[in-house]
Amino acid sequence: MADVIIEKCLSHINNRFKLVVLASQRVHCLNTGAEPVITHTKSKNTTIALNEIASNKLDCHTLFNLVVNRCKKSIEATIDINKKSLGEFSDSIERTDSFDNEELSDQEDNLNNDQDLLCEDDINIEDELNL
């Protein structure tokens, strides 16, 4: 039965890939509340979509435009998420860099203090040797 429907669909749409994309878009529309354009008896939305395409009651150009718009929205959402993630990542790098800089300056201060103490010890040792 499904083979017959698919063959009828392919008489209107010359590419199996395009058929799958258009049928999936129509199923998406049906799942989100669109009304079927053919009468059906308790069929699943996939079967309804294929029967609608086979009966040539749908405008394939409109379906294709819906697919393109849905893909654009998905890509834009992905880009926004990636930009947000990248912003958070760069903020965390800046925080890490500032932390590292603070830590390095603290270590330099400690090193300078240690060097000062060593110099004082050297002076004290020299004073004792001279005495």
Automatic annotation (TrEMBL):
Keywords per UniProt: DNA-directed RNA polymerase, Nucleotidyltransferase, Transcription, Transferase
GO biological process: DNA-templated transcription
E.C. no: 2.7.7.6
Substrates-to-products reaction catalysed: RNA(n) + a ribonucleoside 5'-triphosphate = RNA(n+1) + diphosphate
GO molecular function, one term: DNA binding
SUPFAM superfamilies: RPB6/omega subunit-like
Cellular component GO terms held in the UniProt record: DNA-directed RNA polymerase complex
Pfam family, one: RNA_pol_Rpb6
Domain of life: Bacteria
Assembly: The RNAP catalytic core consists of 2 alpha, 1 beta, 1 beta' and 1 omega subunit. When a sigma factor is associated with the core the holoenzyme is formed, which can initiate transcription.
Family of this protein: Belongs to the RNA polymerase subunit omega family.
Function: Promotes RNA polymerase assembly. Latches the N- and C-terminal regions of the beta' subunit thereby facilitating its interaction with the beta and alpha subunits.
Protein name: DNA-directed RNA polymerase subunit omega
Highest classification ranks of the organism: Bacteria, Pseudomonadati, Pseudomonadota, Alphaproteobacteria, Rickettsiales
Gene that produces this protein: rpoZ
